[in-house]
Amino acid sequence: MSAVPAPAAPLHPVSVVGIGADGWPGLSGTAREALRAAEVLIGGARQLDLLPPECAGARVGWPSPLRPAVPRLLAEHRERRIAVLASGDPMFYGIGRALAEELGPEGLHVLPHPSSVSYACARLGWPLEDTEVVTLVGRPAARLAASLHEGRRLLVLSADAGTPAAVAALLTSHGFGPSRLRVLEQLGGEDERHVDGIAAEWAHPPGDRLNVIAITCRASADALRLGTVPGLPDEAYEHDGQLTKRHIRAATLGALAPAPGELLWDVGGGSGSIAIEWLRAHPSCRAVSVERDPVRAERITRNADRLGVPALQVVTGPAPTSLAGLEAPDAVFIGGGLTAPGLLDACWEALRPGGRLVANTVTLESEALLAERHKAHGGELVRLAVAHAVPVGGFTGWRQAMPVTQWSVTKPSDSGARSYKGDRS
Prior knowledge:
Elements: E1 14-19, H1 29-37, E2 40-43, H2 45-48, E3 58-61, H3 69-76, E4 82-87, H4 96-103, E5 108-111, H5 116-124, E6 132-135, E7 153-157, H6 163-173, E8 180-185, E9 193-198, E10 211-216, H7 246-256, E11 263-267, H8 273-280, E12 286-291, H9 294-306, E13 313-316, E14 331-334, H10 343-350, E15 356-361, H11 364-377, E16 380-384, E17 387-392, E18 395-400, E19 404-410
Parallel strand pairs: 1-4, 1-5, 2-3, 2-4, 6-7, 11-12, 11-14, 12-13, 14-15
Antiparallel strand pairs: 7-10, 8-9, 8-10, 15-19, 16-19, 17-18
């Protein structure tokens, strides 16, 4: 069966014009000229309504879902001069990304407008470089939880008029009820309005759907402190005892060495702690947690939502069969099921060249298996032991936790890797 040819690119560079709540009066002369010259104007209904009659091009609204329609619309109008309207800066969480992926930078003429984030920082007196931005447009509110830290300033790009109330509820449920919220609506427009309040006391009705939320994070006295490095408190997780404990978890993430954009397989997920803290290392990190027990798999999802990484993909089923068809990982952690036939081989085969594999065990049988693989592939074999001070009568002594044997190894860069296509039966 022959491949479907890619749609032909437009004959002229596509003008991508950022527009704000101030509409046509807020545009530069260059942006206005690009819109006047366009034979086809593509954008959202709100954006197209901001244009005057002198922009005579045919007006085409984006369908839903938007992303799959981009190549089709560009191909349909490829012989005409196209201008695409975007909110604010097209290259900041805007349509500019999708257009650049389709046409490359040489196929675009981008004319940005100040973004809502630039306007918000200007109104608040916040340095833009010190302000973290979290978008909830088309994304779950749970992802905000990973950015909550005492004293931190956040700007949230709202999905709609109901987002401020949802954010206030999330902050309160995570121990950040004392945080100050300021909702900035219609930034830069004639109807600009600001609403102020405390998260735990938020009672404002929904306002304008075009809004940005400014948060000054304040934790309540009893809020659990969650740092930015691996080794979150064990109390941060819902679990049934199947949890890589805090100190071992920190050492394990250190060996896995997450980097931006990398993909982890967490095999034998348990409570999902390794995958969750991998994802918290950087917003672009990705992870798949494989857990055979459906109850535990549901618990992993709840933990991921609670700790701000709802993008964690949870696969329910036994390994290695449940690994079939997954994207080849940059790192693999095996926290359970090491003695399952073919598991180590499947993970090693799928691992990308230069990728890391880390396996932990507390049993002699699995330890012998790791010693054998260490002899064959090298790497580092260590024993991790942690003791906690506990009361002993009227005194204090040490209670030793079960020692953990850990094998960590980097796959040679000249080894092959591919999506794992093992037996699906």
